[in-house]
Structure formats: structure tokens, C-alpha cells
């Protein structure tokens, strides 16, 4: 794992990951292998039901699933042994496909508590109310979230697009090392899509990796991935560069399914 | 059989106290007649039992109240409660007109000066018996069902202390009135009978708060009645806080009578006690009359709270909206009964009600009973009741942002309460509720399956 001499440093390593729906024998991931190095952007594509959302949710610690074998490492540390809140504090962030409404929960307080939890974990002091105020405003402006929404309860009564923008506000505030974006493009109009893509692109850099899950190639016109992986029936069937997304767009997922079956 | 005899003996305490009370009370013959009628009604009906056929009291057993002897507090020592104590424990704002009652007895020293000017009267009922005789005779006991309810009947027998609030027609700038009922430490169990009458004139506005606060851990009994009359076009904003001792008994009735185009907005906050029942009964007796009743209750340990709401749509074009929320922990029990009656010919009525509960313990219980009785055909009514816990998805969302389970739980429970608290327009009362609710939230952390290998 030497990071000297410009060698690539793995941030996320997924090894032979097998996952079932909690309490059942229904296997969704059937041996996934994936390495995301620092600074890289990876896209996971795949048909409905292929397990691509499950993959990022398991990495973030959603309790609906059980890992039956395999491992997940973040900076070489065993992620599966960590509680979801610890994973977040270690620098992981999941932008939800369907962000939850938190009735009556005031966004300012909630988000400040989140930022402070991460800072405390790193041995830093809590952010001052004033400083947080500025961070929050700047993030809301960048993501095009209407200021009056900050006065409502978290995500309550937000439109689908507003919820997705609010996920990006959190991405900006929490400043993660590993951003997991679960179908962030779904339900977005073209303007919102451009805003979100720009926000993600602004956060590309040598200290951050991004793993995004998408069904369509559309998002990848705006966020150009370093690698594309196609997940079929719980396994990565094909991996390649950004050109793979275009190939999928023209040939469809059946092509990959056939290739996978033949291979 | 034995129990029956025991009960009679306990009632004897009320009868004996009444003899002494009559002698000590002001010698108003007309009022003594009302009191005596109250006592004989009580003597005949006693306290309601939760047996079959008495649907109204099915989930709230008042046997423990009936079996215990409570004495009337003839003497209240002058310095048993200080203003500092009240400010520390109750909602308080020097701008409000506050009437303080200690153990059910009016305390002039702790209260704001009585008001009697520009058409506004705020004073102890007892002090206004002469000057407001006409008003009292016209309204007192006219709206409340004292012949069927022993609690109201015995309250009527001992009526003396409580508020008299009168707002003349077309009066808007009245200061908020706060009725603060505080229970002090006494050597024996006592009963307080606060009795209030509020009459708000045509097109006038009033803000009324009632707080029931305890400075003792001992058991006592609050048996209160308030009658609130809204004349044509009047508006009353009403806030109610029950923060009685865990061992206390509290049975109170707020009886509201609304004329044409009047608006009654009420929010009740209640912490459970040994037995607590908040009865709010509203008669919408004029076209355009509307009421919104909100509530938030919190129970823990072995507390009990019963919110008993009755709305009578007597006239067409009347609206009612009930919105109650409960947080239940420990082995506590809550009852919500929302009975909405749309009377014959009361067309074009809108009636909504909902009761949502957050149940934090397997041993806590809610009996929620929305009931709509509709005798007219052109009405829109909806009701809903939900009882449940917070979904794992919501919790996971919060944890995925780095919050620990304890913080996530606290925010979610606070959030549940904020939906009611945030709607209070009165700063002093809202700030108090904000702080008080956060302080009194049960120590609780949600449980959720944690991820990992199997």
C-alpha cells in the first residue's frame, strides 16, 4: 500500500462481497470486487434489480441487508465492523436515492450536529454557530436550494428535486472523503442535474473519491467518470473507461447480460 | 358491598367540608342555591365509574379518586409559595395579567392587580360576585353539564375561587391573561376546585392561558371547570398546560360556547399524572363559528392522560379541527377520545381530526377513539389515528450523517413535539414549552438492528 512514488492509494476496497436481504436467503450481491483509489470517480451502472443501490447502501451501513461474506475496507480499515454513524465520521457520505423527511426536525440544528459529530471524531472543536451559518448559506446558494426551505423541517414537503439538492448541501457541509451518490440524477430536471453535476465536479480532487450509481448514461455527460462498472445480477460483469457508458447507451444492458453469460 | 360503604364514607368528607364551606363562603343567597344544587347532584350521582355502559369513562378508571379522602383547603398560609418559585417553574411574563391560585385558593399577593377598566374585567370570581352578579347569573353553569358529571357537580358546590374574565364588545388590545394554578406541599391530600368564567364580547379578542403546576410530590386532586363564552365575531386564543405531580389527580372541563363567526383556538400541553383528564367540550352554536383544538401530551412511568374532546356542530357552516399528538414511554397509558357530533340541519360543516402517537415502550398503551356522529347530509368530515414508532429508514438517514443513536432519538422526539409547539404565537409560552418539553423528554434511545456480518 505504499503511496510513495506516485503509486495509487486505495480508499475503498470491496472484496468478494456477498449480501442477502436481512433475515432471508435472498442473495443480492454475489461476489463484488471493486477498488476505488483516492481521487478517482467511479460509476456503477446496471439494469434495475442488479444490486447497484444495494452496494452503496451496504457500504454506508443500511440495516436492511446482511453481509454473508467478503470485506469492505476504507483506508484499509474494516468498514463492516463500524456502525453507520462511525462510517460517516470516518469520511463516508451517502446521498440517498430517496431522502427521508424528518418531521419537525430543524435542518440547521440537525446539520450542525452532523458537522460537529464529524469534527469531534477528528479531534477538532465544534463549529461556531456563526461559522456554520455561513457554511450553510453558502452551500444552499451553491445547490440552488431556496432559503425558505431551511426554515422548514428537514426535507418535509420538499419536492423530489429539492430533496436531491438538499442532499448535495449535506455533501458540501460534511466534506467527505468518499461520496456515495445513489441515483442522484433520478427525478431531476436538466437545470437541477447541471447544478448537481457541477457541485460534484467542484469536489473532485486528489483527496476525495466518488462512487456514483446511475441507471442512465445522462448524468455521465456532466460528470465524467474515470471508470465505469456494469453490475448484472449481483456481479460486476464489465469494467472499463467512460466509453463503456456510451457503448451501453447504444447497445443496451442486454448486450452486457449476453456478454456476461457468454464469458 | 364493602366497597360501596367505603365509597359513601369518602363522600361524607365532601359533605362535611361543604357544611363548613357554606359558613365561610360569602353570604350570597343566590350563589348558595347553585352550590347546594351542585352538592345534591354530586350526592346523587357520585363519581362516574368505568364500568360497561358508561362509554365516556371506559378507559379512565376514577375509582382511586373516589376511594380516597381529599379535604378542602380552608387555610392557605400566606407565604407558602413565592413569586420566585413560580417564575422558576411556570410560564411567566410580567406583561401578562397573571392570577395565581395556591391549592385552589386565590392568592392576591402573588397575582397581578385585578383589572376593571375600559370594558375589561379580570379578577378572582369571589371578588366579583357583587359587581358582576348579572353576568355571573346569566352565564355561570349554563353551558356545562353538571347534572350528569359528578366532578362538575362537586366543583359547583365549592365554587368560589377562579377567574372572572369579561371583555366588552369591540375590544382588541387586552393583555394576555394567565391563570396559574399551583399546588403546594400540604400535610394531607387536598382538593382544589378552580372555577372560571370567561365572557368575550362581540368582535373582541382575548388570549387566555391556564397552567396547572405542582410544587409538591404528594398526591392531591384538581377538579376544575372553566366556561368560556364567545359572542358573535369574538376570537379567543387559549393555551393550557398540565404539569401536575406524578401522584396527582386532575379532572378538568373546559366548556366553550361559540356564537356566530367566532373563533376558538386552543392548544393543550399535558404531562400525565396518576389520573389526568382534560375535557374540552365545544358547542358551535352559530354559523361561521370555528374551532381548532391542538394538543401534545407526554406520559412516562405509570402516568395516565385522557384527552376527552367533544365538539357539537349545532349550526350550519361551522368548522372544527382537532390535531393531537402523544409521546408515550414507560408503562404509561393515554386515551384520546374525539367525539364530533354534526346535528340535524347543521349542513356545510367541515370537521377534521387526527391523533398521532409516538410510542417509545412496549408497555405503553394508547386507546384512541375518534368518533363522528353525523345527522346532516352535506358535511365533510375526516378522522385519522395513528400509533406507531419511527421507521428504521428515518433513523438510518440520521445516523448516516454521523449522529449517534441518542442524538437522533432526541431530535426525532423533539421534532414530533415541535409540530405542535412551533405553532404557539405567544413567545413566553412557546419558549417555556420548548424548554420544558426538551427537559422532560423520557430518557430513551431507539433500538435498531445494526448492520454487520452474520
How many strands, what sense, and barrel or not for the largest sheet of chain A?
6 strands, mixed
Q: What structural class results from the helix and strand content of chain B?
A: alpha/beta
Described by its quaternary structure, the protein is heterodimer
β-strand number of chain A:
10
Task: Describe, in plain words, how this protein is organized in 3D.
The complex is a heterodimer of chains A (263) and B (454). With 263 residues, chain A is of the alpha/beta class. Chain A has helices at residues 52-60, 84-89, 107-121, 129-142, 160-174, 190-202, 243-251, 253-262, and strands at 10-21, 27-37, 41-45, 65-74, 77-78, 92-95, 178-182, 209-214, 227-232, 235-240. Chain A has one domain (4-103, 177-262): 3-Layer(aba) Sandwich (Rossmann fold), CATH 3.40.50. In chain A, strands 6-7-8-3-9-10 form a six-stranded mixed β-sheet, sandwiched between helices. In chain A, strands 2-1-4-5 form a four-stranded antiparallel β-sheet. The model of chain A has no long low-confidence stretch (mean pLDDT 92). The radius of gyration of chain B is 22 Å and the shape is globular. Chain B has nine helices and 21 strands. In chain B, strands 3, 4, 5, 7, 8, 10, 12, 14, 16, 18 and 20 form an eleven-stranded mixed β-sheet that branches. A ten-stranded mixed β-sheet of chain B has the order 2-1-6-9-11-13-15-17-19-21, covered by helices on one side. Chain B has helices at 2-24, 29-45, 63-66, 83-89, 133-139, 150-157, 392-399, 405-421, 427-440; strands at residues 97-102, 105-107, 115-117, 120-124, 163-167, 177-183, 191-192, 195-200, 205-214, 221-230, 235-243, 249-258, 263-271, 275-284, 290-299, 304-313, 319-328, 333-342, 349-359, 365-374, 379-388. The chains are: A alpha/beta (263), B alpha/beta (454).
